Amino acid sequence: MKFKLYIIIAYFLVLCEIDAFSQYVQFSQFYAAPTALAPSFTGMTTKSRINAIYRDQWAKLKGVFVTYALGYDFHVSKINSGFGVLLINDEAGQGNLRRTEFGVLYSWYGLLDNTYKIYFRPGVEFKLTQRSVDIQKLIFPSHIKPDGTLIENPVYPQPADINKLNVDATASVLFYSPVFWIGLTIDHLFRPSDGFYDPTYKVPLKYSFYGGYKWKMSKRSRGSSSAEDWFFVSYHYRLMALSDQLDIGGYWEHDPFVLGVWVRGMPYLNIDKSKGVDAVIFLAGYKILNFKIGYSYDLPVNTLLTTAGGTHEISLTYTFAPLLRGKKRYAPIPCPKL
């Protein structure tokens, strides 16, 4: 029975990704990989920055469900701009369903309101994408006998192309002040043909809405070396075709520590009204010199996902002296460290 359940879960996940909504890359620590969330976050610090993040999803399932991203970005204050590059790789299931993206990013920022220090920051990414699958490693319903065992010498439906290469683009816009931020990202602007079996299939547009607010919980007394306490509340909503997901959570920041709790999937707020909470996410981070290390665990509460297991995520950020220096004032984005 356990074997049959794994087959059903794996088949459902892989088939949805192949024929319906493409592969849906996401991170729980999305502010630890900010340029993967939106190109508007490119060059968001005064220093040059390298981000690396690794996600191991559904640990109990047979097969690999792993995503990682590696990015580099820097700030050029003379022209109010940020530049960067980003590499994302995602692997799903035993069929080696793989998606790789390499993008170049740019952002610019300007002051909208001097009184409240509200800034406007658009961004854009152009990327090359590759998508591949090993059909011989997949299990289809026609391969399973009524007793749950597999038939010998199964027949595999062959796709027209098992290695898809495309050019795509992402655009975003971010509004922020010293205490709040709100943004929108639109992905798959070129609507590439990404289906293995249907050459007319076009990847749907993906919309991401995110934002948050921070406030000071305690003030540093004069002459004290103790760190200030900050609290952040934030949300992240994604919509792609008829699939959507909402995350809501908060962070507590007391340098060099960051702790956070998130809820993924809010009842009656998603397109599918019957969808409940999928997972509770716990995050922790620590800063050592120029390094920031983060760890998160997605604790599934949905019955099906509980069988699939939890999700581990590790992030590492390194900042160093900027390559180019300028005299213009920098406009920091008030996002949490993770």
Written description of the protein model:
The structure is a single chain. The chain is mainly beta and 338 residues long. The protein has a single domain (2-320), classed as Porin (Beta Barrel). It has helices at 2-19, 34-37, 303-308, and strands at residues 48-56, 64-76, 81-93, 97-108, 110-113, 118-132, 163-176, 180-187, 206-218, 229-240, 243-254, 257-264, 279-288, 291-300, 311-320. It has a 14-stranded antiparallel β-barrel with strand order 1-2-3-4-6-7-8-9-10-11-12-13-14-15.
| Reported CATH architecture | Beta Barrel
Reading off the top of the CATH hierarchy, the class is best stated as Mainly Beta
Distance between the termini: 40 Å
Indicate the CATH topology.
Porin
Strand content: over 45%
* Number of separate domains: 1
Structural class: mainly beta
Average pLDDT? 83
Helix content: under 10%
Whole-angstrom Rg: 21 Å
Offer a few descriptive terms:
338 residues; mainly beta; globular
Tell me briefly what this model is:
The protein is globular, with a radius of gyration of 21 Å. 8% of the residues lie in helices and 48% in strands.
What layout of secondary structure does this protein have?
Elements lengths: L1 H18 L14 H4 L10 E9 L7 E13 L4 E13 L3 E12 L1 E4 L4 E15 L30 E14 L3 E8 L18 E13 L10 E12 L2 E12 L2 E8 L14 E10 L2 E10 L2 H6 L2 E10 L18
